[in-house]
Specification:
The chain contains five helices and 17 strands. With about 270 residues, it is an alpha+beta fold.
């Protein structure tokens, strides 16, 4: 199976995905470590980061969470005033961070990019139809030098699994959980074969699916959609994600208008 994009298109997709996928760092004294990945979204004119719930089992002081000024390199900044929403059901491993600090939002708008619900879809009903990749910042590929935290952005193409893997350590939630192959090697978007790193740090990153665009002119924005949030993995076996209906369920606890907009967007997306 191969990705139906050329090298130039793969590079544009990678740049687009990089611009919306933010590493979430935890500052400790004079250093910072990647603890999760998030994706920037505007929903109903409000600013959010979609990420993973178990991040907040590791971090108790939210003022120590930080992000770089831009995707390439930049000073670290704290998020300022935020509100974290997590599901009542701890098995649903997603979280929503709402950004309330105007300065932080303006900085993120200048250095990064926010998606909208136009960039979200339900996953393909037929797993064989879904060409997908996971994007995020593995801890194994990050480090620190000369006072700068640096890391490699991972986009690994994978195949959705038709069956639930055996010997799961956590309960399977039908309708929300889906799984992808994560063997010893994976394919990068440019077609290169890469050795798969440990995915610690990628938790909270988006799972993207290639879609058929109706636009006459090709664009990276119209070629891929977010269909899930990466939540756990078993190295050399599988990676696991919650689909975006989990976000809709979570937002029902927050604001019905937000939830209804997410549900409407997911219901508009085709299931093939």
């Amino acid at each position: 199976m191969s990705i139906d994009v050329n090298e130039s298109q793969a590079d544009l997709i990678s740049q687009f995905v990089l611009s919306v996928t933010i590493p979430i760092l935890h500052e400790i004294e004079h250093s910072a470590a990647v603890v999760a990945t998030g994706t920037l979204f505007k929903i109903a004119e409000r600013s959010f980061i979609i990420t993973v719930r178990h991040l907040f089992d590791q971090v108790s002081d939210l003022t120590l969470l930080a992000y770089p000024e831009n995707p390439r390199k930049g000073r670290l900044h704290n998020f300022g005033h935020i509100k974290v929403y997590t599901p009542d059901d701890a098995k649903i491993d997603v979280a929503v961070i709402e950004l309330h600090d105007p300065e932080a939002v303006a900085r993120l708008e200048a250095g990064w990019q926010f998606l909208t619900l136009e960039n979200v879809a339900s996953p393909s009903a037929n797993p064989a139809n879904g060409a997908v990749f996971v994007a995020g910042y593995p801890v194994a590929l990050t480090g620190e030098s000369n006072g700068w935290t640096h890391g490699s952005f991972l986009t690994a193409y994978t195949q959705r699994l038709a069956d639930v893997p055996a010997d799961l350590q956590e309960p399977y939630i039908e309708g929300l959980d889906f799984f992808f192959d994560y063997g010893h090697e994976a394919q990068a978007l440019d077609g290169r074969s890469i050795s798969t790193p440990n995915l610690e740090g990628v938790s909270g990153g988006s799972v993207w699916e290639f879609v058929q665009s109706e636009s006459i002119v090709w664009s990276a924005v119209h070629s891929v959609r977010v269909v899930g949030i990466q939540s756990s993995f078993r190295h050399y076996d599988f990676t696991r994600a919650k689909n975006w209906w989990a976000v809709a369920q979570l937002l029902e606890q927050v604001d019905e208008r937000l939830a209804s907009e997410v549900r409407a967007s997911l219901n508009r997306s085709p299931s093939v």
